[in-house]
Amino acid sequence: MAFELMAPLMFAMLAAFLLLGYPVAFALAANGMLFAFVGFELGMLHPELLQALPQRLFGIMSNQLLIAIPFFTFMGIVLERTGMAEDLLDSVGQMFGPVRGGVAYAVIFVGALLAATTGVIAASVIAMGLISLPVMLRYGYDPRVASGVICASGTLAQIIPPSIVLIVLADVLGASVGDMYSGAMVPGLMLVALLMGYILVLSIVRPAALPALPPEARTLRGGALYRRALIAMVPPLVLIFLVLGTIYLGIATPSEGGAMGAVGALALALVKRRLTLTLLRQAMDQTARLTTFVMFILIGSTVFALVFRAVDGDLWVERLFALVPGGTLGFLVVVNLIVFVLGFFIDFFEIAFILLPLLAPVAAKLGIEPVWFAVMIGLNMQTSFLTPPFGFALFYLRSVAPRSIRTADIYRGIVPFVGIQLLALALVIAFPGMTDLLDPDRTKKIDVDKVEIRLEAPVEDKAADDRAAEDLQEALGGSAPKKAPAAPGGKAPKTPEEKAAEEIERSLRGMK
After folding, report:
1. Which of 212, 289, 408, 473 is the most buried (most CB within 10 A)?
2. Where are the domains of the chain?
């Protein structure tokens, strides 16, 4: 009975550590080691359990998939310093300017492009907050709508490849990063379309909240505007092909694609004459900090998972979800509710490394496809940047927003955009084929009930056997046994045993 309580006690103790404010990585590792020694003292676990720990830690260090994280982080930080966001927002904003709600469309479009290149939420939200928010407020945009669209567009980096979140999910769920990227692309573009659709509807229902830019605000027109927009969009499009195109085509692995993206970002900064020693030092410092953060959480989660499974924690989680009604759909609904609620309080890295290793075995037993499951979780965790009290996108915008915008305006403005993200999540759950559109062959499965296995019996070659026996007899110095002469008609003569059997059969017939 005491052994059965170990798993729920471990989970409860971890929640207590996190609520008390302890660092996640150390809380995970300390909790695992604490219950390991308790198990040793009570005789429930064997000390040999910890012998598996060094091998697992070296496995983390040698995981080539995780090399992509520092590459993409470095690429995003360098691109953020090159001023690419400013050029895009200025040119695209003037293109959409004559349309009602045009600046909001431009913010969403640029947010999607930045997500596919930089992948850094802080950089996207801060850049668009500094550049677009004053323009939107100056020309009469509703502060809530302006705040909401900037925060929501900045978080597109969570789901649009090359997303660091998808790399982490691929590692946790044991899926391919390339499959994860191809599976997330269509849902990510669908989310962009839903955001633009909301702006379209809002511009019709409340035209005063999203006015068009006046003519004096549009300094470029005609061919000059299109040339500037083309020049601004070429670098990110080239980088998108350099990173995602090579991964999709199978030319490069995700780590190699990230390395090419990092080199491309350095080349772009050099062309724009913004590559300085200070920029390199800042980019490398932030990259090292994030990479170290991820590695420590991975180590802590490995220690916790090793002990948690030793006390049958995975079976305890399976039994809990077995009580959920509705089968697979019920499991997905409950899991997404848990992830959504946890997103209010903890970071997406913590959700990925703490919760997903417990849920992945249950999802596998229910036959849930890993890429579909990961894209759902990624869309859900995207809301963690928008939901108070710890929505980081809200904090980033608050840090650069003018004092005329209240914090309450930012919180209220984000509510409909959270609803849009939940709508996108519901559509992905309802239409799982959405994650297979770019790679339809990935989910083709073999029906084992229709597989037919035939084992052909070997054909006996009596002539070859006889020749082999003769050769062996000659090699031993004897003569090969001679075959009995064939009977007339080509049949071999009957043996004495066969003749005796025939005599017995005739006798029995006579008795009848």
Report:
1. 212
2. 66-303+391-437
